[in-house]
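pinging the channel bc i need a second pair of eyes. not urgent but kinda urgent?? the chain im working w is below, pasted from the shared doc
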Amino acid sequence: MTRTFRLWIAAGVVCGAVSGHAQARQDGSALIGTWTAPEGSGRVATLKFLREGLFEVEFRGDDGVEVSGRYQVVNNELIMTDEGGVAACLSPDYQPARYAFTIRSGELTLDALKDDCDGRVTMLERRAAVKRTWTKKK
């Protein structure tokens, strides 16, 4: 009986740890911060996720923000809606983008599930057919 009880406690601890990890990913908290990715030109692109559900993208190497908007995480999908910037894909011409995302060892990868804005897919997911990896800035 004691052994069975210990197994249930161990299972509960493991399940709690797994569900805690899934919850952090599900609510998007692991995304919050500044992520960078190198450009072929030598510049560094920056993707910022803010606590207020806002995001910013800078990729020209200047001090300006090329795209800004709102994001949310629903059912482990990142949903992004551009609201401004010189490179924004605005509605009604473009619908919100949906991406699957993975964070491992401080690296973020995005996989487009539905995004009709080719420029956004190129910027966020891949560049010249090479999968883009974003690194969390410390």
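so The CA atoms of residues 2 and 110 lie 46 Å apart. and The radius of gyration is 18 Å. — does that match what u expected or am i reading it wrong
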